[in-house]
Structure formats: structure tokens, C-alpha cells
Write a structure and sequence with these properties.
Order of helices and strands: HHEEHHHHHHHHHHHHHHHHHH
Number of domains: 1
CATH architecture: Up-down Bundle
Shape: globular
Strand order of the largest sheet: 1-2
CATH superfamily: MFS general substrate transporter like domains
CATH class: Mainly Alpha
Distance between the termini: 33 Å
Radius of gyration: 21 Å
Number of helices: 20
CATH topology: Growth Hormone, Chain: A
Oligomer: single chain
Number of strands: 2
Largest sheet: 2 strands, antiparallel
């Protein structure tokens, strides 16, 4: 079995170049198209519309369907299908991503693994073009596959941050990449907004405009993934695993996972950060994944208005990520993330009181979300990278990614259950405050420098 002492390190000065950092950051640009166009804006309301057409044919959009869907004999409210689908995808991911992390640490060419996983997810995202009528079952399957591949590819991607950036530079590099992602996702969303607004002039139906937008997100994700895959192609795996290799791929991966679970108790501050992240990130992910559903179903906005909303969030988040990165350079990532959690609590409370149809007020909420969203996520990633043992980056980031964006399951489950119990999305969105409060209180207890020392990493100037 392996241990931290079996790490084989390449020369970090060769890997930590500006060229490597720029190439690495392009994957945020690539996958953000799927996160924004598909995951945040279109798929939840579109999947709900497909399910409504199956359960209540001919019912007007936005009307409450009194009939339930049946999945393996279990009654599911039409409005709960989308959050339940994300919940199921997350539960599957929580198990699978651990194996992905173990494989990635043993893989001789991690960037090719990154590309393979990304292209598989992009294929599933592109196939969403074929969703129409009442075919929500295919939609559920494609969402699960795309989300799983998204999370798996991000495990490999996040772990490479340790390879391309010095500890003192990680907040900046991570924040710039996240800002680049918001810019890319926003640009594609502008294009899709034009298609959905001008669909009649283009000679297509509104449904076809949505389907083309779903397709564009998959193609964007696949195409721009070429930049990090080619730009980082010379980076090799960091860990030698001779015993695992002799045991074969499956046996070796299981052996390495067993070793990691035994060792993880030696990193209590890393575990405490993960627990904090589980809660406050679940709150963030639930807000992100449910925003369009909340806006359309609870507040009565059109899909085009929700695209405008997400565009505001995207472009404000570009500046917000850079702003939070600059603040972290002065006061440290931990304090900055804690401030962001407080802001999230206030933003959700504000969203609860937005009147139905009050689009201008809703846009104010969008500006607040954009300001805080990118910074808290980017700095959480860079802060965690300091707490990860050398040679186990992918494995430890698999724990992290199981709780990452689009894979939250406590929050989406609570959101779906609250809607099923109350028939309203307002109390459902308000319940996310509980996750922010618990996560923030746990993060307060994390002793970051102690965790960095335990992981055997170089101490940054400011944490």
C-alpha cells in the first residue's frame, strides 16, 4: 500500500509557469457553459415542463399539476422531479468520485483523464438536444451522466491547481480561473438569449431554441477542453504505487482507497474544513441549481427573464471573483470565505421577500448573488488545496468534489421535500439559510496553519 512518503515530485518550477496557469484556467471557461446554460438556467424548468406534459397533458406552463409521476412505484410531484434528479446524481457521485480520485493519482497522464471525462460529460450534455414532448426519463438519465462526468473531471482539474501554482499564488490563480469561467458562461448565455428571443425570426419554435441552447453548452464544453488538455499535456502523475499496480486497476484502486481512509484521520483540520464545506456549499449549490425554478414557478418570470438574471449574475460574478481574490490577498482566504457566508445568508433572506413579478427587485438580488458567488467558491478551492497531502491531491479533491457545485444533495433534497410538504418554493429557498449558518460555524473552528503543517505543505504568507 502507499503512503505519503511514496510521492514522486516533478520540478515544481517547471510546472508552475504562467503558461501552465493560463492553460489550466481555461477548463473553468469550458465547463461553465454547461453549468450556466444547462445546469442553472434551462434544464430544471425544461425537465419540469416535460414531466408536466406527461402527467398533465396540455396544462399551461406555470400551472400546478395535481397528478404525480411514478418512479419505481414511488409517487413524485412534478415540481420535485428536477431537485430529486440532482439529489440522485449527487448520491451516485459521492461514491464514484472517490474511485476517480484514486485512479487519477495513479494515472500517468492526468490531463488525458481530464479530457476523457469532460468529453463524456459533454456528449451527454449535447444529447439533451433530443429531449422533447414528454420524454423526461431520457432527461433524467442525461442529467445524471453529465453531472457525474462534470464532477469527475473537476476532481482531476482541481488537483492540478497544486501542480501549477505556488501556495502564495493559489488564491489569485483560482480566483482568476473562476472569473474566466463566469465570463465564458456569460458569453454563451448572451448568444442563447439571442436565439431564444429571436426564434421566430430564425424560423424555429421556442422549444427548438431551448434544445439548440442545450446543444451549444455541450459543444462549448467539449471544444474548449482541448486547451487545458493540450496545454498541460506534459504534466505526469505524481504518485508511484508499485503494490497497487501489481494488484491490477481495480484491486490497486481499492487498496489505495483503503490506505487513504486509514490516513485521513491524521488530518483533522482538513476533515473539519470538508465538513464545513459540505454545509455551506450545499447552500450555495441549492441556490444556484434552483434559482431558475424559483424564479419561473414562484415569481412568475419567463425563461428569457431568467436568462437575463443569470447573465447579470455571471458578469457581476466575474468582478466579484477578482474582488474576493484581492481581499483574500490582504486578510486571508478563511476570513474572506466567512464574510461571503454571511452575505449569502442575507441574500437568501432578501430573495424570500421578492414579490411575485417584481423583476427589477429580483435583479438587485442577482447583483448581490453575483458579487458573493464566485469569490466564495474560488477561495474555498484554493484554501482546501493548502490542506491536501502531497501525492494525494486527486483523492482528497474527490472528497471535496463530492460536495461541490451541481452535486449538493442535502440542500436539494431539503428543497424538494419542503416543496412537496408546502406546495411553495418560498419556504424551500429559505431553508438554505440553515446550511450557511452550520457551515460558517464549523469553518470558524478550522485551524488552517495547523492543517497545512499536518499535510506537509509549505506555509503561505497569508491564510
Amino acid at each position: 500500500m502507499t503512503s505519503a512518503s511514496s510521492v514522486v515530485r516533478a520540478d515544481p518550477q517547471v510546472e508552475r509557469t504562467r503558461a501552465h496557469q493560463r492553460a489550466w484556467g481555461w477548463y473553468d471557461w469550458a465547463n461553465s457553459a454547461y453549468v450556466t446554460t444547462t445546469g442553472t438556467v434551462l434544464i430544471s424548468p425544461y425537465l419540469t415542463a416535460l414531466a408536466r406534459e406527461d402527467a398533465c397533458p396540455g396544462l399551461a406552463s406555470g400551472a400546478v399539476c395535481a397528478e404525480d409521476l411514478s418512479i419505481l412505484g414511488v409517487p413524485i410531484a412534478v415540481g420535485s422531479l428536477a431537485p430529486y434528479t440532482i439529489t440522485f446524481a449527487t448520491i451516485v457521485s459521492a461514491l464514484v468520485l472517490l474511485f476517480v480520485g484514486a485512479v487519477a493519482d495513479r494515472h500517468p497522464r492526468p490531463t488525458w483523464l481530464l479530457g476523457g471525462l469532460a468529453w463524456a460529460g459533454a456528449t451527454a450534455a449535447s444529447l439533451m438536444f433530443f429531449l422533447q414532448g414528454s420524454n423526461w426519463q431520457l432527461g433524467v438519465a442525461l442529467v445524471v451522466i453529465a453531472n457525474l462526468c462534470f464532477g469527475a473531471s473537476t476532481v482531476v482539474y482541481d488537483a492540478l491547481l497544486n501542480r501549477v501554482a505556488h501556495p502564495d499564488d493559489r488564491d489569485k490563480v483560482s480566483s482568476r480561473a473562476w472569473a474566466l469561467g463566469y465570463l465564458g458562461g456569460g458569453l454563451l448565455l448572451v448568444i442563447n438569449l439571442g436565439v431564444m428571443q429571436l426564434y421566430e425570426n430564425l424560423g424555429i419554435s421556442y422549444e427548438m431554441a431551448i434544445r439548440l441552447s442545450l446543444l451549444s453548452a455541450g459543444l462549448w464544453w467539449a471544444g474548449f477542453t482541448l486547451i487545458p488538455v493540450l496545454g498541460l499535456r506534459r504534466i505526469r502523475g505524481t504518485t508511484a504505487v508499485p503494490v497497487a499496480r501489481s494488484a491490477g486497476v481495480v484491486g490497486g484502486t481499492l487498496a489505495q482507497l483503503g490506505d487513504t481512509f486509514r490516513e485521513v484521520r491524521n488530518y483533522p483540520q482538513t476533515l473539519m474544513f470538508l465538513l464545513a464545506y459540505l454545509f455551506f456549499n450545499d447552500g450555495i449549490q441549492t441556490v444556484i441549481s434552483s434559482a431558475s425554478l424559483y424564479g419561473i414557478e414562484a415569481l412568475g418570470f419567463e425563461t428569457s427573464q431568467m436568462i437575463i438574471t443569470i447573465l447579470v449574475v455571471q458578469f457581476v460574478a466575474f468582478g466579484g471573483a477578482l474582488l474576493f481574490g484581492a481581499i483574500a490577498g490582504r486578510v486571508g482566504a478563511k476570513r474572506t470565505v466567512l464574510g461571503g457566508i454571511v452575505m449569502w445568508t442575507l441574500v437568501v433572506t432578501f430573495a424570500y421577500f421578492v414579490p411575485r413579478g417584481a423583476f427589477t427587485t429580483w435583479l438587485v438580488c442577482a447583483v448581490l448573488i453575483g458579487t458573493v458567488m464566485g469569490g466564495t467558491q474560488a477561495l474555498s478551492r484554493s484554501l482546501y488545496s493548502q490542506l491536501v497531502p502531497q501525492g494525494r491531491e486527486s483523492e482528497f479533491f474527490s472528497f471535496y468534489q463530492a460536495m461541490e457545485r451541481g452535486t449538493s444533495w442535502f440542500g436539494t433534497l431539503a428543497f424538494g421535500l419542503m416543496f412537496q410538504l408546502t406546495g411553495s418554493y418560498r419556504p424551500a429557498i429559505l431553508i438554505t439559510i440553515v446550511f450557511f449558518v452550520i457551515g460558517g460555524l464549523i469553518l470558524l473552528r478550522v485551524r488552517v496553519r495547523e492543517g497545512i503543517a499536518a499535510a506537509g505543505n509549505e506555509q503561505p504568507r497569508i491564510v
